[in-house]
Structure to design on (1016 residues):
């Protein structure tokens, strides 16, 4: 048996024909607490290096940790939201290894007594089906410092002339969420991986425990993958791909590793148990550190901390603070709002759920809210490089109340639909509220029935053939006449009313 | 009242200061002069802070003259074991690896001394990282026993006990992981208390074994120990293992010195065989004194104590191997570049520094602990040791059902000669056979002088152990015994010690 790290890949269909993938995901989430896990230092992102440090998080001789209670509460809430059991009693453990960005040369983590264990998260896939991801555990730990390797071409330690260490990140509270080995995903394994991370991200966001920004590293994903030859049940050797820090990368990394494993196994080779690095730009993984039995972290219970023993009352009171699960909330809103699946997906993809919810709350119809927030403004936000409509609108002080006001102008009969579009354009251009824009632009339906009747008479007289068709019972022909009337009125007429008058004159 | 300030007890000095009979500057200067005269021989100090001590003394005298309400011990100077972080003062733990390190923060105990207005005279010598029973493992040379300069002063806190025994300070802070306060007290004819685990904050105490370490007072009288215990003790939110309760009424107990009706338990496993005849004889006499004072004697058996030493030498090295991992040359202390390596990696610098900076005993224990925690050995070593630890706690619990305190000789022998046990770690470890069980169970213990052994004329120690948080019982029993012994001796035992200032030619 020869272990190999060749970069050859097998075609996707050939992989699926011969193997079943087994997937495991480890997600690290930085909690959004104001202070670190074991000291009172601030956790603000992007501060000057080594300004948010103290004897505790620098690991100075004699300093001792004290558990951040808010972090423990967040961990319990995450566990509950993942349908986990919450430990009655658990301890922190020391994970011992040497690295310059580890101030104490051990990481305070949890080992065989995680705060939360045995849960699941149901993940909705693109075809509408649900995949249940079993959760093995969620445990608390502290982040390490951050090394910056200077002087090399790659930014990696290899080839660098020196390294700088920033301990601001050391001691930031982390929750590591580990799935059980996920079998049975088959060809959907890449999609399941992405959907799981996306669902988890939405859940953590709804829990308000982290800003879950993958691009800033506040949510980091490691992908474990192995293949089993079809028809067998023994787990193959797995690789652990690190640094997979976008949803798209999660999907691509799973697919790539499946194809890479497939090529090795197909040739009769064996997979090397190792850490691999994901490269976003090239879409491949490269060999990292070889894992072996020599990796021994010598875990033992952290003697400087007392056990965490949340009472059942505490757990239940934290359960009461859980928000409605995002998937359940989406289903409820879709039915409340009467949106089709397609409409709902568009709204979700555009990140408009909350904005539409607020607008409906403020008095608009769901259809109206969807229409106004997903049209012109979405195009503008996109064109101007804004991340989402909500923040684009907020930056320009365009509020749900504006949409409600605009809808009111239409239902009260002051504006017709095309006039309303012009008014919204004005609002987006910063010309003020819908009423102010309508006033300034002189947009108002003509309410004078005399003028409208005169226009109808003129149009009937000018189009005797069409008028005759209507008289003969072809009511749909009235559309052409209405168009003429609106043209004559320069658009400032109520088309419905014009229709009424035309039909009254020709069919009674 | 004595006119030699260096011979006065802390309680006497406190009274003199309050009555205006002396000033803190006078007292502090007397101590510094004494150090000048005798410490060349004794070598109790690693660092003397003449200026700092005098400046605090001046400050206190000034505040007193303004009529400010001061702490009872305000102005009484004190020495601190070099294992406690002192802001602005070197803290080496007796190791080369911390040479030159000046902590940017104070240990909680040190802050409390400063708040009480006690001038800090300097930092006392110790076995490197508190590993040893003789101070022969100090990287800066041993401390000599004031009773016989050719003999060890005990360890690891030989410096703190010797500084008190040689009248260079009335008070010192020690730390006790397996007997490092009590065994030096025994062999130097002084008093030392290891409080209940959690009774005194460990914040700023450079950890040897986190679950065993406890700081406590080193003094010449039981009352002085109680006064200092009261200053040091009490809850500290910076130490998670600190007990959230008031300090037991130790001073009151020491003043009342009442043992009427108290049940004194003699531990069968900690007496007789293996104990030097003179040590055993003084112990038996002391027990008789307590009976004369109204106590009742019972015999108890603690069979698991025979396994205590073995368990201790697994738990201590395990925790120490992890606690000492932070000394890696990356952030503070010694940095040694490996010889013959052009462009050394961080790991190579760590290895070279640790090789040069740690002494043999420290290396021995790091290796032992690393081994004991390794996967595959953890259950057999660390796991079994934890079980023994529970059995020892059970033995204590059972013994305290029939006895209010337990007593034994503190150490099996009087002070041995330098070099006698340095090459025989097991013989050295056996010194702590009677003191270790208290650390494993977290219960408080005290050693006070029981007299001089007939065969060598050197001090022997009497150990008292009490249930957790009942530290006051140590002081009741200790003070009652001390009263009767002083009466029998016609004064304190240390009055019989050789006068160092007239015999300065003798050296090891
Ligand atoms: Zn900090």
């Amino acid at each position: 048996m020869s272990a190999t790290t060749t970069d050859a890949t097998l075609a996707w269909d050939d992989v699926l024909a011969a193997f079943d993938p087994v997937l495991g995901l480890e997600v690290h989430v930085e909690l959004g607490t104001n202070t670190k896990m074991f000291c009172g230092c601030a956790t603000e992102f992007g501060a000057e290096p080594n300004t948010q440090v103290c004897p505790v998080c620098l690991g100075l001789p004699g300093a001792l940790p004290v558990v951040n209670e808010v972090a423990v509460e967040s961990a319990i809430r995450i566990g509950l939201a993942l349908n986990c059991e919450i430990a009655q009693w658990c301890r922190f453990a020391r994970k011992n290894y040497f690295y310059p960005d580890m101030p104490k040369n051990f990481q305070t983590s949890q080992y065989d007594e995680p705060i939360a264990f045995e849960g699941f998260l149901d993940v909705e896939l693109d075809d509408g089906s649900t995949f249940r991801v079993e959760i093995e555990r969620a445990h608390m730990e502290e982040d390490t410092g951050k090394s910056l390797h200077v002087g090399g071409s790659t930014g990696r330690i290899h080839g660098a002339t020196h390294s700088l260490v920033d301990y601001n990140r050391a001691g930031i509270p982390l929750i590591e969420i580990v799935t059980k080995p996920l079998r049975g995903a088959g060809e959907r394994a890449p999609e399941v991986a992405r959907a799981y991370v996306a669902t988890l991200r939405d859940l953590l966001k709804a829990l308000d425990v982290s800003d879950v920004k993958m691009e800033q590293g506040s949510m980091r994903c490691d992908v474990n993958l192995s293949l089993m030859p079809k028809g067998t049940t023994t787990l193959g050797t797995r690789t652990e791909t690190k640094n997979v820090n976008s949803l798209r990368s999660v999907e691509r990394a799973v697919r790539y590793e499946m194809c890479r494993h497939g090529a090795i196994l197909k040739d009769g080779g064996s997979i090397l148990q190792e850490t691999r690095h994901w490269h976003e730009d090239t879409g491949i993984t490269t060999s990292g550190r070889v894992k072996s039995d020599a990796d021994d972290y010598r875990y033992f219970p952290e003697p400087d901390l007392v056990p965490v023993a949340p009472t059942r009352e505490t757990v239940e009171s934290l359960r009461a603070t859980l928000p409605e699960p995002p998937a359940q909330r989406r289903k409820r809103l879709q039915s409340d709002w009467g949106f089709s699946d397609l409409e709902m997906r568009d709204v979700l993809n555009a990140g408009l759920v909350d904005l539409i919810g607020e607008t409906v709350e403020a008095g608009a119809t769901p259809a109206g809210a969807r229409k106004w927030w997903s049209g012109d403004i979405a195009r503008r936000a996109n064109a101007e490089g804004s991340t989402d409509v909500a923040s684009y609108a907020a930056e320009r002080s365009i509020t749900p109340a504006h949409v409600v006001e605009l809808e009111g102008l239409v239902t009260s009969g002051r504006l017709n639909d095309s006039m309303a579009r012009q008014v919204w354009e004005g609002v987006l251009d910063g010309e003020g509220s819908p009423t102010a824009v309508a006033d300034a632009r002189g947009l108002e339906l003509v309410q004078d029935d005399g003028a409208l009747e005169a226009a109808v008479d003129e149009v009937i007289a000018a189009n005797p053939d069409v008028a005759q068709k209507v008289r003969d019972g072809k009511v749909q022909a009235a559309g052409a006449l209405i168009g003429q009337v609106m043209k004559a009125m320069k658009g400032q007429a109520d088309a419905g009313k014009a229709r009424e008058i035309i039909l009254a004159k020709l069919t009674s | 009242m004595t006119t030699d300030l260096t011979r006065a007890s802390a309680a006497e000095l406190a009274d003199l200061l309050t009555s205006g009979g002396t000033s803190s500057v006078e007292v502090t200067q007397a101590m510094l002069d004494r150090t000048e005269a005798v410490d060349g021989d004794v070598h109790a100090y690693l660092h003397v802070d003449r200026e700092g001590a005098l400046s605090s003394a001046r400050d206190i005298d000034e505040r007193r003259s303004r009529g400010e309400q001061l702490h009872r011990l305000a102005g009484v100077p004190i020495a601190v074991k070099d294992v406690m972080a002192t802001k602005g003062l070197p803290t080496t733990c007796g190791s080369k690896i911390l040479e030159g390190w000046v902590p940017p923060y104070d240990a909680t105990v040190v802050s409390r001394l400063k708040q009480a207005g006690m001038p800090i005279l300097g930092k006392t010598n110790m076995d490197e990282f508190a590993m040893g029973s003789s101070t022969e493992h100090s990287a800066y040379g041993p401390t000599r026993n004031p009773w016989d300069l050719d003999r060890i002063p005990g360890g690891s806190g030989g410096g703190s006990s010797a500084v008190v025994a040689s009248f260079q300070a009335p008070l010192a802070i020690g730390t006790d992981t397996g007997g490092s306060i009590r065994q030096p007290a025994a062999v130097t004819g002084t008093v030392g208390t290891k409080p209940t685990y959690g009774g005194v904050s460990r914040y700023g105490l450079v950890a040897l074994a986190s679950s065993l370490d406890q700081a406590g007072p080193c003094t010449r009288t039981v009352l002085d120990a109680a006064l200092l215990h009261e200053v040091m003790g009490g809850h500290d939110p910076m130490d998670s293992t600190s007990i959230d309760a008031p300090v037991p009424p130790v001073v009151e107990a020491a003043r009342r010195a009442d043992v009427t009706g108290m049940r004194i338990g003699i531990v069968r496993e900690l007496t007789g065989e293996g104990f030097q005849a003179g040590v055993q004889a003084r112990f038996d006499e002391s027990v008789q004194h307590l009976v004369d004072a109204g106590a009742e004697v019972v015999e108890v058996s603690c069979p698991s104590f025979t396994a205590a030493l073995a368990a201790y030498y697994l738990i201590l090295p395990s925790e120490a191997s992890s606690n000492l991992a932070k000394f890696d040359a990356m952030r503070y202390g010694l940095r040694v570049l490996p010889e013959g390596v052009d462009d050394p990696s961080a790991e190579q610098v760590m290895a070279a520094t640790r090789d040069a900076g740690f002494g043999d005993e420290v290396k021995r224990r790091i290796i032992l602990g690393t081994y004991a925690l390794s996967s595959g050995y953890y259950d057999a070593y660390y796991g079994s040791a934890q079980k023994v630890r529970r059995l020892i706690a059970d033995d204590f619990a059972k013994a305290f059902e029939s006895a209010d305190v337990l007593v034994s000789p503190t150490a099996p022998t009087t002070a041995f000669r330098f070099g006698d046990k340095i090459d025989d770690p097991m013989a050295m470890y056996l010194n702590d056979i009677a003191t270790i069980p208290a650390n494993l169970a977290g219960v408080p213990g005290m050693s006070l002088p029981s007299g001089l052994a007939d065969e060598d004329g050197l001090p022997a120690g009497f150990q008292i152990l009490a249930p957790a948080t009942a530290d006051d019982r140590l002081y009741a029993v200790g003070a009652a015994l001390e009263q009767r012994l002083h009466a029998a001796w016609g004064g304190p035992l240390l009055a019989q010690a050789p006068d160092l200032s007239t015999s300065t030619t003798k050296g090891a």
